Structure formats: structure tokens, C-alpha cells
Amino acid sequence: MDALIILCVILFWLTIILTMSHLSAYIKQKRLLIDHVSEVTHTDAFSKKKMKKSSRATIVQKVLRYADEFSDLGERINFFSENEDVAVWLKKSGNVYQLSVQQFQGIKIFLMVVGFFVGVLSFIIGLPFSQYGLIFLPLAGYFTPIIIVRTQAKQRQEALRLDLPDFLDTISTSLQAGVSLDQALKEVIRFFDGPLREEFSRFLYEINLGVPRDTAYRNLLERNDNREFQGLIKGLIQGERLGVPIATTFKIQAEALRQIREEQIKELAAKASPKVTMVTTFVVAPVSILMIAGLMVLNLIFGDNSIFNLLN
């Protein structure tokens, strides 16, 4: 009987290992197939994001069902969230969940109502600090969407700035080899991830739909407020009007961005020294002095030459 149990356990774990192995191989082959289809059809990053719905996206979709009922109220109660500001935040954050301004205003009020009911429930149950929850939980529900969207917009613009120099160098090399701008963008963006790929994929999509190039450039400027990125797009617009070679524009922009980044790193390094000095002065030095003083006091009380031994 014991041998049969051991055999079943061994077969069970062998089955688990085989299942995990085949699952890993399936996921790997699926990823390779998706990459191959993306290369052949030149699809952008938006299709992948729509296919891969995360749990967070599922939660947002469920919240949207109730948030639509609060959209009118949210447009009236618009403290720190005017409709114009919300529209700009959604554009700059990439609007991953494809929210409209009205839906965003509805989510804000819906979470505030949820926070109020959670605060009331915690107060009835008698949880610690529940009396403060009646005030802070509705406020947290109201301001959480605002903070999240503004943070996403800031992080997206920062990621755009970090990837821009390498992207410009690659595009400049492709253009100097005689490739057209649209073809160079189509080939190069496949090797980049994040907002840079999203923005130029959308740009190419607009160009293929017949949108004038100048309008497509200005749409890029409206969706992003990063200074380096805006300098690149404005340089492209100006170069197209004046007839400056595009490869030269990309090369100059890449060199300028690297110089700006070097100056920013030097500035951050210069700002770090006073901060280290402040921490040393107000944290490390007092703690060291207290430790030395404490050791001296302990030595006077419990040491061989303590005060009590001298008195005796």
C-alpha cells in the first residue's frame, strides 16, 4: 500500500512538471508567433495592449458601468479637475483605458461615494480611527483618480525623454543610408517599447489615413509636453518648411539631447552634496554623539570604575 501511495505521488509531480514544461513551450511559441505577425503586418503597440487586458483594466471596466451615472455630477463638482485639464491629462498619460472626460469625472464621484460608505461602515463596526475615515476616505476616493492620471502623465513624459537620444541616433543612421522617414520610423519603432513607440505608431497610422503631415506633427505636440520631444517635432516642422535634410535634423537633435542630459546629471550631482551634508549634520552626527555619551554614562554606572564602586 505504501509503495502504491509513493508511486501516485511520483506520478503526480511528474505530471505537474510535464504540464509546466509544455505550458512554457506554448507561451514561448505564442510570443514568437505574435512578434512574427507584428513584423509582417507592421501593427503598432495599441493592438497588443487591447489584446492583453490586465486585471486592473477589468476592474476599471467594471467601475465604468457605475461611473457613467455620476458623470453629470462630476462635471459640476470639478475641484482641481476642470474638463480642459482632465482632457490634457488623459492625452499626456496615453489614456491606457480609453477614458473620456465624462467617464473620468464619473469615476471620481463614484470612488468618493464608495469611500463615504466604507467610512460609515468602519465607523459602525468600530474600527480604530474610523471617525477620521468619514472625512479622509471620501477625499481619498475623489483625489485618487486625479493623482493617478497626473502621475502616469509625468512618468510617460519622462520615459519619452529617456528613450529619445537612442531613437534619434538610429533614425539618423537609417536616413543617411537613404531610407525615407516613414519607412525608417516603421522599421525602428519595432525595437522600442513604451510611449515613444506608441506616439510614432499613431503618427504613422494618421499619415496612412491621409492626415496632412503638418497636422500629424501638431497632434504629437498636443499629446506631449516633454521639452526635448517638442523640440524635435518643431525642428522637423521647421526643417520641412526650410528644406533642411531630415537626417541632419535628427543628428543635431540627438547631440543636443545628450548635451542637455549631461548637464542635468551634473546639476543633480551638484545638488546631492548639500543633501548629504545635511543628513550627516542633522542625523549621523547627533546619533554618533548620543551613542558615545550613552556609552560613557553606562561606563560610569556599570563599569569597573563606576561611581558606586568609588563610593563603596
- Strand fraction: under 5%
Structural class: mainly alpha
Query: What's the helix-strand series?
Result: HHHHHHHHHHHHH
Helix content: over 70%
End-to-end C-alpha gap: 78 Å
Low-confidence stretches: 44-53
Characterization of the model:
The protein is mainly α and 312 residues long. Among the domains are: 52-155, no CATH class; 159-262, Receptor-associated Protein (Up-down Bundle). The chain has 13 helices and no strands. The protein has helices at 2-41, 45-51, 55-67, 71-76, 83-93, 101-125, 130-176, 181-188, 195-208, 213-223, 227-242, 246-302, 307-311. It is extended. Residues 44-53 have low confidence and may be disordered. Its main location: membrane. Keywords: Cell membrane, Membrane, Transmembrane, Transmembrane helix. The chain crosses the membrane at residues 6-27, 109-129, 135-153, 276-302. It is a multi-pass membrane protein. This is Tight adherence protein C.
Task: Put the structure in a nutshell.
With 312 residues, this protein is mainly α. It has helices at 2-41, 45-51, 55-67, 71-76, 83-93, 101-125, 130-176, 181-188, 195-208, 213-223, 227-242, 246-302, 307-311. It is found in: Cell membrane.
